[in-house]
């Protein structure tokens, strides 16, 4: 049995929530008995190929929620000796680091996932670094989402090399099926899409500024931003930038299911101008794969592990982070060249066609 412990899970959206969900489904597809321990967020509990173990929590990293996570760890060690405990995101890792002296992990195979940002935070802080060094002897497998994240981990802890497994994200089979038959759109509007939480690192403001500086005749542009704002200050900053944009900017909030698929279906170009941030790292980006599966050409900033998720010059244009002129030129190029958009979109579909979560996790079980 493998117990996945996470604060980031359905119905929450975002890269880590998607990673945790698809990892659970892929492991179950290999015949593993999976139990997912996660917060009891409001909403229906869908039928899945794993068992649910929901507990009361806001899904935060506040002290009371970290305490709730350690109670799940303690229960797992007591009731399921020999069963794998898989931590798929930073909150349960932080909880374990704080409370590890209360646990007997000697009979519990422990697998930990790192996504990038938490590694940067832990290794730059001596308090967390010491606790990681104390915990690592009890960890059987370390999962990272990209070669970039693996490098971050091994630069800080080179002795862990033999225990590191790269499990890159993939596109779910349901997502691929939703875009198997391209939808024909009418009208001359060119729709540009970003899907990411509202955060300075995600670069929505940079895209708005780039669009504001573009003056093209006979082009009807529309920019849609999909994603929630967990901090209202960032939302207000984005709203202020949109007021100066000559083209309509639609702030849709978080979307799921068919609404999210519709946003991709209606789009012509996907763009995410991620910005460098030592405390918050773009270590891969599942959304780039989702855009590729939807047949969209991608414009992305060349930060972190983004170039592992796209193919520069094939399905994407990579621009230097913070280079407003390069971002503007990439947008103009794709706006003015429908054949290039179609060619790059087709290349993206081909790129992700044979990529699957089930294949990616196989090495973890060997």
TrEMBL record:
A GO term for molecular function: hexosyltransferase activity
InterPro entries cross-referenced by the UniProt entry: Glyco_trans_1, Glyco_trans_4-like_N, Glycosyltransferase_grp1
UniProt entry tagged with the keyword RNA-binding: no
Domain spans labelled Glycosyltransferase subfamily 4-like N-terminal: 14-174
Span of domain Glycosyl transferase family: 184-349
Keywords annotated in UniProt: Transferase
Protein name according to UniProt: Glycosyltransferase family 4 protein
Lineage of source species: Bacteria, Pseudomonadati, Verrucomicrobiota, Opitutia, Puniceicoccales
